[in-house]
Structures are given as C-alpha cells and as structure tokens.
What does this fold into?
Amino acid sequence: MSFSHPNFGTIAEDRVIIFDTTLRDGEQSPGFSMNLTEKLRMAEALAELGVDVIEAGFPIASVGDFESVQEIAKNIRGPVICGLSRSAPGDILRAAEAIRPAERRRIHTFISTSPLHMKYKLRMEPDAVLQAVIDSVTLARQHTDDVEWSAEDGSRTDPDFLCRCVEAAIKAGATTINIPDTVGYALPEDMRRIFAMLIERVPGADRAIFSTHNHNDLGLAVANTLAAVSAGARQIECTINGIGERAGNAALEEVVMAIRTRPDAVSRRPNIVTERIMSTSKLLSTITGFDVQPNKAIVGRNAFAHESGIHQDGVLKNAATYEIMTPESVGLQKNSLVMGKHSGRAAFRDKLQALGYGGLGDNQINDAFKRFKDLADRKKIVYDEDLVALVDDEIVRDHDRIKFVSLDVHAGSHGPARAAMVLEVDGDIRSADAMGDGPVDATFIAIRNIFPHEARLVLFSVGAVTEGTDAQAKTTVRLEEGGKMVDGQGADTDTIVAATRAYIHALNKLLVKRARTEPEALSA
Ligand code: KIV
Ligand code: ZN
It folds into this structure.
C-alpha cells in the first residue's frame, strides 16, 4: 500500500511513525505537569531523539497549554507539531491557532464512539456522533492538510459503528486514524482483530495511516501496540518512560527497542536515534521529579546490571549470553567516569555534546561549567549522571524569578537548627536567618522569611544520583497552594542545599502558575 501523506510524503512500506504524546497524555497525569521552559526543553530532546510527531498539548485546556503548544510550534524544527482538540469548533480553532507557527503541523481531533461513552459521557445518539466526526474533521482540514481523528474508547466500540466512523473521517479528509485503547482494557488479540478488520473492511482505508494508542491499565500497552503494528498500524502513539493517564501509555523506549531487537518478528522500523533514549528518559525524570523504578525495562537503573555470579561470568565471556541489546544502543555509557577538576571548558562542552546537550547556549554552558568546577572540588569522581543532574538543574532554572545564592546551616543533636540563607529575587540579593526543628525546617522557614508565601509543603523526598557517600543528593519538594500542586527538584552533594534548590524550583513553578489565569482545567 503506497500512500502520500501531506507531511511525510510517500511513506516507505517498512516505516512506522512515532507519535510522542509525553507533553499531552503524559503531562496531564497527576504530578507530571511541566512549565513552558520545561516543555520546550523536553520538545527539543524529543526532536533530537527523532520522533516524527510531537503532540505538544491540548490548547483549549488552559492558557498555559495554548502558550506551550504555540511556543513549541515556533521553536522546534523537525517533527510535526500536533495540537489536540475535542470535536467542538472552538476546540479545533484554538488548536489551529496554537500550531500555526509550526513548519509542519497537525490537528488531532477526537470523540468517543463506544456505547458507554456516547450514552453516559457525551449523552449523544450514534448518528449525532457520526455527524460530529464529519464536521470536526472537515473544519480541521480547513486549517491543515494533516488531520488525525481518534475514536476515543475505540477498543470498546461496536465494530460496525467503528467502521462507519472511520470511513466518514477518511471521507472528510482525515489522514491518520487513531484507535485508542483508552481504558487499557484490550488484549493483544483484540488489537490485532480490530486493526485487521478496519484495514480490510473500511472503503478508503488505503488513504489513511492507521495509528495505535494504548493505555497500560493491565500492563499490556506495549504488547497491544506491537499487536496493532503486526496487523497493519503504521503510527505508534507513546510516551517517554510510559507516563500518561492512570497506569500510563505505551513506553516509547520499550516499543522502539522491542522492534529494534526483534526485526525477525516486526517488519516496520521507527526512525529513532536509540542512543538518545537514556538521556531523554533522564531529562523527563529530572523535570518531573519522578524516577523510573529500578527494574523498568530499557531505562531502569538495573536494566543492564548483572548481579548474579553466573550471569556476570557469562557476560564477560560473551555479552550476548545475557544481553539481548547493548547498553550503548540505548545511550548508556559503559565507562561513565567523566572529568575531574582539571578538565577544561572544551572537554566539558564535548562531554555535554556526547550526553545529548549539543543545543546549549554559551551562557548556559558557562553557568553549568562553574557548577561543574564547584562539584569537582567537592566530589572525588564526577559521573555522567552527576553532569546530567547538574545541567538539567541549570537549564530548567533559566527563567526563574528566585535564585539560590548561598546557605549556611548549623545543625546537630544540641538545640534547634539554624539557617542563614541568601537568595536573589527578581535581581535583588536578599538574606534571612531562621531557626527550625532540624536543618530542613530551618532552611524552608528562611526561604519563607525572604519570600513570604502561603504554599504548603506536601512532599519531601531524597534520593542519590550515584553511589557512594560523596554522591549528590537528588531531592523533590511538592508544594500546594489553592489546590494547585507543583513539584521542584534539586541536586547537590549537600542534601540541605539540594533540598533548598528543590524548594525554590517548586516556588518558581508556583509563581508561573499564579501568573497565568487558567480557565477550568480540562483533560482528554
Ligand atoms: O486515550 C485516549 O483515548 C486519548 C485520546 C484523546 C486520543 O488519549
Ligand atoms: Zn490516551
């Protein structure tokens, strides 16, 4: 089947399109929200990873969502930039406006088609839904040639009705047809049957790309994705680290590496630079404050670690005995030892390039270099992980109103702890002292004294970036104000400084949230 797509032209038979929805389906799940700077950084990383489409957000959902989609459309080159919309004209027009600056753009419009959703959620008759499919795709096509239509809850939709909706969407001009397993209910066999049926039965099926979008409620998102591809799906919707609604979406890294590792079983290839998988995964963890679990496939800390003697012995003799893919193929450096305090700026820049930070500006490199020198003075060995934590920390704080300057803490088993804090607030240097019940308490009170606020601390967690007693601490702070939650992250060899950086990061995010007048939040 040869098909000329408005944005991709003729797509080779053996090509599968990777549609990344980390910034939409992923970002809308609790605790994973990102601000504009973070979304832009993530979008850059996705472009470097080689994804074909970035679903940048849901522009009607809030002013913040609209602005992020628009900024990504203005700044990111390479992937098609996509905005999500329901079937209402207002949604579609807002999505069209947000993606307009993009070099290549797509509107993704959806409506529920299952009996359950039509009756209880939409309160619409099937014929009215069918009409909405036609109207929404027709309107979207007036704003871009690249229109994706999704049948929400598609896997639980009556097959005849699904065929009618898909046929109508293609006739109205949809170039991609996405069949989501919205509630993660399907089994691989269901997926195979649905895609084979649509491709076989729907007139005009050869004029569209079929796409699969799977949620992981039963832990089957990746298996369902591969089943759909084996039945003819040519676009995969997925997210980094598998983040997304509830149990998440199919994880990009898992789907891509499954295809790469088993070319004998899957005949279509993605265009992903797999060596960038690890750095993209880590960037997302740094931004959101959620590490993947150690045994997570592909990107977990233990994914390539061989603990048992028998396995280690086998790997030393021939890595293929226990490794089905190489650590290097996903960007894990075998020798993660980096530079020491005598390393120069050029070596530092080269190292950042190798770690996937080629796009940093001179100011960012200079600031990161200063922090690297400072870290190298305090820490015997600086690993790649340390550099990633440090540089991510620098990048996400670029536009912060409140910046950390210095901290002195006195703590111990005698009496209350004391903190002397210096911060830069909107360019002014301010300082405060505080006493508290332990060093973290004293530090957070000192921040409050410098910058009074009502936000409540709801979570404080500490982990280590690498091993050893001189490892950098990686902290997460969650603040809540008026029902809005934000997470901040910080890294430093001093746990209290890391905590301070995390608190300030969260506070800066809260200020950005406050500055935006957001209408009632929506999610898809
Ligand atoms: O899961 C789902 O149905 C979705 C649609 C909006 C595509 O995310
Ligand atoms: Zn979804």
In short: Confidence is low (pLDDT under 50) at residues 517-521. Residues 402-514 form a domain with the Double Stranded RNA Binding Domain fold (CATH 3.30.160.270). The pocket of zinc ion (ligand 2) is lined by residues 25, 180, 182, 213, 215, 245 (CB under 6 Å).
